[in-house]
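Full entry
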Amino acid sequence: MTGDGGVEDPRADLRWGTVPALLSEAAARLGEEEALVDADRRLSFVQLSAEAAGVTRALMASGVEKGDRVALWAPNCAGWAVAALGALGAGAVLVPLNTRFKGGEAAYILRASGARLLFTVRGFLGVDYPALLDGEDLGDLAETVLLDPEAGPPGPGPAATGFSEFLARKEEVDPDAAARRSTSVGAGDVSDLIFTSGTTGRPKGVVATHGQSLRTFGTWGSIVGLREGDRYLVVNPFFHTFGYKAGLLACLMAGATALPEPVFDVTAVLERVAAERVTVLPGPPTLYQSILAHPDRAAHDLSSLRLGVTGAAVVPVELVVAIREELGFDTVLTAYGLTESCGTVTMCRRSDPPQVVARTSGRAIPGVEVQVVGDDGTELPRGEAGEIVVRGYTVTAGYWEDPAATAAAIDPAGWLHTGDIGVMDDVGNVTVTDRLKDMYVVGGFNAYPAEVEAMLRGCPGVGPLAVVGVADERLGEVGCVFLVRPDAAADADSTLARRVLEWGRAQMANYKAPRHAVVVDALPLNASGKVLKGELRERFARGETPIVTYEGSK
């Protein structure tokens, strides 16, 4: 199935080619118009371009060469955008890190990517990120730079350079030399590695190029109707494709103002929408549900809102109608994608009725093929469930330094096997119904049982275990770990369960950490010894065995 939608937006034809070229063109075209607003910091397109160029020069002075990896571990903020754009201008490969990671998770990605330099922060939600790396093997990492103006008092972990000290190095590099570096970057050069987990239990870096990302999200912006002058509240995190590419990059292409929001707090969002006259507010369904349910919603002027984009979960038709009628959005769209396809595979169109927007994830975007296939790889008749496969310019060239994983995901004909089960209707709309890989979605974040299981096995005194996703009213899904009882002492079940849940919370990002635990005599296995996870999910739903729920902070 090849995407419909007519001729692609001319913004998607690679006339920019690279992110540095995009930023330069946006500065020339839009000048003093607001590009980014972060609290009291307001940057025009010219200022954003100039600040990014300063970072490019400082990185060159710090020894960063084209192709070197530069990591970013920070929340949505102006500093993240400036550092990222500066790194791309230096020809570096951006490696975003999830702000929910614990030290061991971040260290693994720093090692695996071979990152030379890390931009990070101290104090976001009370977390000292450099301190989390204390004692970890950081591979080739040579320097840690704090995005805050000053480094502050030294603490545990790698020595951190204050941003002012780092930026002062730009004087060592001539602006013309930095400009030559930026123009030497090509559309086919790797722009970023976004690490995603899979059934192997180890995160893998998905390779994306400058041209690939710009073409994808030029198309995305055209389909959703993003336009010059829009004011886009970016709640989706910059470390994810949605926040970084469908947010920051899409704003630069359209000429919209990006307003990064570090965390989703419904009251803060309502206040900012009113104060900044926000027009575009994408996010998971829970974002809109939280706004609709807020008792003080009517006290805030939300009349500026016009465009919403959601996905990552089943969306009730009633919610789409409520977003349009009660919140006043002109357009609400759903979409489907995965990191390996540059974040986008299918999208609804603005002309689609609420039933199509709610019940499907739309049709393939232009230039991309989507099929639903059976076990033998043959396309199935419309209406039959099978694996969703994708082919086209959005598909990654592969996983970073992992040819075996690449070969397992992308077949010789170029089809990316998503591991998602879906159904395609007569006009090509895709409905995602299940996941071959047992992935579950926690509040919009993908969680992978194999990775969670591998980490939980590090908990002392834990034997065989299995993790599944189970329904949760607030987050959509959460993890439940089934633990095999180490001995016959039934009265120790709750103690074991609570200990494992607490250990998980301390060792991994909270969206990965299981919320529930069940202690069992044995795990159900099939004839080949694989755990029957469907049976575990059914047991949880029936409540056959005592379920221990983590009672700490959510």
